[in-house]
Amino acid sequence: MKRESIDIAIVGAGPAGIAACLEAVRLGLSPLLVSEGPVGGLVHAARRLDNLPGYPGGISGSEWARACEIQLSEARIPRLMSKVLAVAGKEKDFLITTSREIVSAHAVVLAVGTRPRPFPVALPHGPFIRRDAAGLPSRLEGLRAAVVGSGEAAVDTALNLADRGAAVTLLSRAEAPRACAALLGELSTSEVRVLAGTAVCRAAEDAGTVRLLQEDGGEWTGNLAVFCIGRESRIDEIRLDCPPGTRGILTAGDMNRTTDRYVLPAMADGRAAAFSSFISITREA
Ligand SMILES: Cc1cc2nc3c(=O)[nH]c(=O)nc-3n(C[C@H](O)[C@H](O)[C@H](O)COP(=O)(O)OP(=O)(O)OC[C@H]3O[C@@H](n4cnc5c(N)ncnc54)[C@H](O)[C@@H]3O)c2cc1C
């Protein structure tokens, strides 16, 4: 199935894609939001966004995503829940092949974010070994959970699981977890047990019991493990016959960044990409 050509296809419904959509509408363009995941993207994994102006005390990632969902609906932005597989240049337009249909657009904004970086050895698949907290039940009382990682996402996730009632151990390879002062302050007064200088080298799961084997021969046993060991761009998952930088094809958000992966820079990128698309579309017309 093929739609009529639209002004701008925005791929990814995280903060970068959301901001690109809202700016596109503001400029009078007709966008189509194509995303394989729900509105909000990675913010669904965030316990509390405390660096967004306008939310004293912060706001949970899921709550912020719900507000964005309403705003996109109010702006009547059409959505296609689908994975984009390929983007090809065709005369003045781009053909975007998704898992459900082919879309033709005058401009494309790719805002596909990141995926978890692979663990050096394969991790077992299943509900008890995860890569972030998105989709976990709201209550985890009675469960022993481990978070593996040393950075801000690991600290946020450890506090998140503790909020839900789990007994949490943070296994940090670094001598001390690294995060913003506010998160480290919360960690120090929380019930989360921190095992610093602990390198996990293997994970196993059997009938709901998770075992994490450490390089020093130690072992952690419990019910749930979340590996937060870094993320990498997803851009290589899309076949592109016209590289980013080609007129009319723009990128935005965490997929472009190795540091400063936060909501506000992602949104600024998304807005700027929509604006550049507007310039390129109006010049072509
Ligand atoms: C635990 C945790 C806590 C965090 N806390 C904070 C915080 O307090 N403050 C803060 O500012 N930031 C925080 N962040 C970071 C923030 O979530 C990200 O910086 C932000 O979500 C990046 O936005 P993005 O739009 O670039 O990408 P993402 O949010 O990753 O969105 C990418 C979107 O693209 C879609 N997608 C991917 N590939 C395809 C494809 N091929 N086809 C179609 N759709 C596709 C995905 O489904 C998703 O909707 C946190 C992150 C984590 C993990």
- Tell me what the CATH architecture of the largest domain is: 3-Layer(bba) Sandwich
Count of discrete domains: 2
Mean pLDDT value: 94
Largest sheet: 8 strands, mixed
* Amino- and carboxy-terminal Cα gap: 26 Å
**How large is the share of residues in beta strands?**
25-35%
- Could you state the order of secondary-structure elements as H and E? EHEHEEEEEEEHEHEEEEEEEEH
Output the radius of gyration. 21 Å
List low-confidence stretches: none
The H-level CATH homologous superfamily of the largest domain, spelled out, is FAD/NAD(P)-binding domain
Verbal overview:
The protein has about 280 residues and is α/β, with parallel strands linked by helices. The protein folds into two domains: about 5-115 and about 230-285, FAD/NAD(P)-binding domain (3-Layer(bba) Sandwich), CATH 3.50.50; about 120-230, FAD/NAD(P)-binding domain (3-Layer(bba) Sandwich), CATH 3.50.50.60. Helices cover about 25% and strands about 30% of the residues. It contains five helices and 18 strands. α1 packs parallel to α5 and α3 (about 150-165) crosses α4. It starts with 5 loop residues before the first strand and ends with a helix. Bound molecules: flavin-adenine dinucleotide. Flavin-adenine dinucleotide binds next to α1, β2, α3 and α5.
Annotation keywords:
alpha/beta, eight-stranded mixed sheet, FAD/NAD(P)-binding domain, binds flavin-adenine dinucleotide, 285 residues, 18 strands, 24% helix, 5 helices, elongated, single chain
